Every structure is written in structure tokens, then in C-alpha cells.
Amino acid sequence: MLWIPPYNEPHFSERSKPLKTQKKPSKAETANSLAWKRVQLARHPQRPFTLDYLEKCFTEFTEVHGDRAFGDDNAIISGFAYLNGHPVVVIGQQKGRDTKENIRRNFAMPHPEGYRKALRIMKIAEKFKRPVITFIDTPGAYPGLGAEERGQAEAIARNLLEMAKLKVPIITVIIGEGGSGGALGIGVANKVLMMENAIYSVISPEGFAAILWNDRARMQEAADLMKMTAPDMLAFKIIDEIVPEPEGGAHTDIDQSAQNLKKALEKHLKALAGLSPTALEDQRYKKFRSMGTLPSK
Questions:
Q1: Cβ atoms of residues 162 and 294 within 8 Å
Q2: By C-alpha distance, which of 247, 64, 277 is closest to 165?
Q3: What angle do CA 195, 198, 201 make, to 5 degrees?
Q4: pTM for this prediction
Q5: What is the full DSSP assignment across 113-166?
Q6: Which helix (H) or strand (E) segment is 212 a member of?
Q7: Which tens digit of pLDDT belongs to each residue from 146-190?
């Protein structure tokens, strides 16, 4: 789960008071919430999804289906591709553009078989020494009865363990919503990038507000308190780089957004290419151990 700063950190106003008793901001204050604006941009229905970046950043994509145990999960796309001529494996969560497609993709909420499919292709990548690139865009893993019966928690936990010790470079990009364990199930990487208007958090602002204040209407206030934007993630060392978006969001110029991301991916793949399998594993371990460390005063 993502690290959230304790309540007494200097990032919070009125930090001596419990959050439940803090003054509720005015409508004008929440209307100007930059964090909430980024939540809305991260969820924009025209925002580029995994398939859009696959089309514009990669060539010769060949999709792989199924987990070889239960079935295929359309919420996660996986396969082989080339990035600027270099063979890679690509895995990503996929939302839909309309109701029919969202139902087919289960609103990008993966089942256990989706995570097991992702792990299957990661193991193939390790066998053939191909770097792994993952795209995160999910409100969270699917919490339905069938998913729990088939071992949702175990599937995510297994991916965390196996990705931590994978012997090839892994780069993760949060392109939209990065929700809780559903995101982390394909998010343990040597380098974690984040689109400028993406979000990354342990829970949605609506869920945060409902649990803490029993009032979902305070979701904008929650978004501010949660420190879920790209600049927050960079400050806490949860991500390594913010990929810039065109003014108004990635959906305003998908070609430019993809070009910016492709440059970042090429740069980080080149930097990781010279590391040995042991060095990659060690770098990944140290990276996650340092997450959440506040800058020294």
C-alpha cells in the first residue's frame, strides 16, 4: 500500500487537531483545489489509455491472453512489442471509452487472473531477457465475490514478491488513476514514472471522505489532504519522474503526450540496460525502502 504522511507532518494545516475535527473549507476553497482538478483530469473519459500509448509509442505489439489457470482478464492487456527497435514486454490496465467497453474491461479493475496473466508474461520476459514496461490506470482491483474466491489478495501479493526479484529492468508509468493494491500489483519497478495529471493513492478521495468524515461530499478536501498528485509523489520519493502533459491535460494532445512519455521511457531503459540482474534487484529494493522519506530540513 502507498505511504500516506502521518497527520502531524508540516504538509497539513491545523496539524495539532485530529482530522475529524478540522475546520471544513469553504466552497470557494475546495473549488480551487488543484488536487481535485487533477483527479478529474486523471479520470477524464478522453484521456489516453494503455492501448493509445501502445499504438503511439511502440511497434509490432502482439497480445498474450490468459493466465493458464482460469481464464483471460480484459482489464489487463499484456504482450510483446518494440520500443524504438528494442524488444520489450508491455503490461497495462485498460479502461473503456463507453459503457459497453467499460463493462468488457470491468472498468479497469483486474481480477486475480489478470494479475496472474501479468506475472506469466513477466516470467517470459525474464526468460528472454526483455525489459518490462507496465501502465497503471485503475481505481483498484476488483473486490467482487468471485475475485476474492479465486484469491485476489494472494495474486496481488504474489506479484509484489515476484516483481521485487525479477532479473530484468522494470519501468512503471501511472498514466491515470493509480488505486491501492490494484495499482501496486503491476507497480513494483526500478523506475516509476507518473504523468503530470495522474493520481496515485491508497484509496479514492470519495472513499477517504466517507470513511473519515462519513461525508463523501468532502472529496475535494480529501484530495488535498491525501497528497496524491505527481508533485506529492515525487517529493516523497514514490516516483522518479513526472512526465509533462500538454496544457489542459493529456487528452488535449494525445500525440504530444505519447511523445513525451516515449522519450522518458527510452531514457530510463538506456540507464537500466547496463545493470546486472543482481544490481537491478538491489536497486529496486533500495528504491522501495527509501519511499516516504521526507526531505531533511
A1: no
A2: 277
A3: 130
A4: 0.88
A5: HHHHHHHHHHHHHHHTT--EEEEEEES-----HHHHHTTHHHHHHHHHHHHHT-
A6: helix 205-213
A7: 999 999 999 999 999 999 999 999 999 999 999 999 999 999 999
